[in-house]
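We include the entry.

. . .
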Amino acid sequence: MNILISACLLGLPCRYDGGGKLWPGAAALTAAGHHLVPVCPEQLGGLPTPRPPAERVGDRICTREGADVTEPYFRGAEAAVALARLLDCPCAVLKARSPSCGKGVIYDGSFTGTLTSGDGAAAAALKAAGVAVFTEEEGPALDAFLRGGHWKAIVAADAQWGIGKGGEQPCYIPADLKRFKALTTGHAVILGRKTLATFPGGRPLPGRRNLILSRDPSFSPVGAEVFRDVASLRAAAPEDAFVIGGGSVYEQLLPWCDTVYVTRLGRAFPADTIFPDLDAAPGWRLAEQKGPYEHQGLPFRYDTYRRA
């Protein structure tokens, strides 16, 4: 497998201070037969090495002195996505806490070593492109991904991969709802708190084990199991579970899926939530296509994607 990796983790001198940060796990990946593709988004974006340290605050990335370096960081993020697609890298191992490569937790912009929730520019762009992103501190999760995912995802996406706005799907097609029920009944379904709220009465789906991923400590719906983090969910969910949304749940759990059932709508709808474009995402292939069908003048089809 081709794996995108922060160049500094291979010991290459590309960090802001001109040094590297050799990660011992890189040697193990190579020994297992994986091909490591080094990337430094900062350099791809045109920044020099060494360079002033920078931290991300919201949508901006600034140096300690206040210089706005957002543009080269985002330009480098786009180049990293292009590289992952060109060389078909389904996953990436990135440097933790970096304003470019950090995942989940990054420095908060105060330059005091304080951490906050968030993703670096490149990590966010890669995740949005369907690349499974790990940091060098997530060895067990990376190992599990490399052994292969077993969950399935099911989603309705419009012509531009939009999957909803304001918590609602683009549209509801009776035949698609019947297909969803047929595919998922008798299996566990994994979803978020907001998706559960869209069900009739906000109640769990009958005939299925409902596994809810939510960090809200007070959330405890009757008839469902709640998990506060991905690790505990992975330990409890069966291999034949279906991931059914919403957007943040798809983003977190797509790395653990090996099949995605997509109801592909024939036109675009207003959307504020986008599913990764699996036609462009590294490591995915269109395995089956059924249709087209039509509902009230709207063409749609059923596409099945599998990990290559």
